[in-house]
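Lecture 7, part 2: worked example. A protein chain together with adenine.
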Amino acid sequence: MSDIKDKNLKAEGKKRIEWADNDMPVLSLIREKFKKEKPLKGLRLSACLHVTAETANLMRTLKAGGADVLLCASNPLSTQDDVAAALTEYYDVPTYAIKGEDRDTYYSHLKSAIEHKPSVTLDDGADLVSTIHSDYPEMIPNIIASMEETTTGVIRLRAMASDGALKFPVFAVNDALTKHLFDNRYGTGQSTVDGIIRATDILFAGKTVVTAGYGWCGRGFAMRAQGMGANVIVTEVDPVKAIEAAMDGFRVMPMIEAAKIGDIFCTLTGDINVIDRAHFELMKDGAMVANSGHFNVEINTEALEEMAVDVKKNIRNCVDQYIMKDGRVINLLAEGRLVNLAAAEGHPACVMDMSFAAQALTTEYAVKNKGKFMSKVYPVPAHIDDEVARLKLASMEIAIDTLTPEQEEYLRSWQIGT
Ligand code: ADE
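Predicted complex, written out as structure tokens:
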């Protein structure tokens, strides 16, 4: 069983999955190892992830490891329908995902993933874990562990753990160095620019681009927008990150000031109503507003709807125009959902290779060490980060130095000074 848009898209999807696989050498190696060793044999696994070509290659890897895998969408707008078709038709992975699905369909797809009776879950945003805890508590005893892909999901899971609500172990894959230093920074940086450009076809050079948030995703987007010739403004609430942004060469100011001068706005904060009514009041005619954070809460789209006297939907693919009382036009991209996945194809395969290698190896580790963990949020073990990094370097044909015995000894000693 599956619920997808159209089976006939399968051939196109397969080509894209294979194309992505060419740039995922680490995951391919793990797939070969899993094929031989079958570390996930007999396990039922449900994944709630963005349904992309890269995710398809992770599903193939987990299946090669012997798991009975099911995939559902982690966002209503990020599904690549051709990939969903290929997964069900060629790769034997039941898939529940339709690009543009409504909220009820989204949750019915999550329900199908839960009814698969998984003993391992993979999440991107923690919807699967939170729905199991709130609506299907009888499933909890089956679950060995869950892996979490994204910052927002890790924040939610930590909140569950500190409330005493978390009832099985979870691994914060997002926090692995080989994940967030590359995926969040270079992946989000590039794919967010890509999404904004595909939606609008605007030139970044000379524009004032406002980046809300200077976490790893915000840093990546600000860096790439600057690289394309934009004047970048950063808004932050964290004083340390704000200094970092200033010393990285960006103007830093509150959103209420930035609102007046920005041409393009992008939220990457993980928090709610970062662009709100008061900001829309001040924006220039023609301002473009996008979000690249996980949930569609960062831009107060309800306020925008209320303020607008008219809305022109789909003026271009992924662009809705809101006409304000005074005649100004505000362009909302991808309905305020993550623009990099809704308007473009998400992060390139090259970085997802590391993120999904970490997912696969952490899943293997959690299963091998079943029963040893408490109901807490665990970091990915350092040896997994090291292995992913070593394999990625090898695939890039980059060699590095090794410590000499003398250097190792020096690092262990404290007596030698100047
Ligand atoms: N998150 C961001 N980009 C992605 C991609 N290409 N595939 C899966 N998840 C993603």
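Residues 177-200 form the longest helix (24 residues). The two ends are 69 Å apart (CA to CA). Keep this in mind for problem set question 3.
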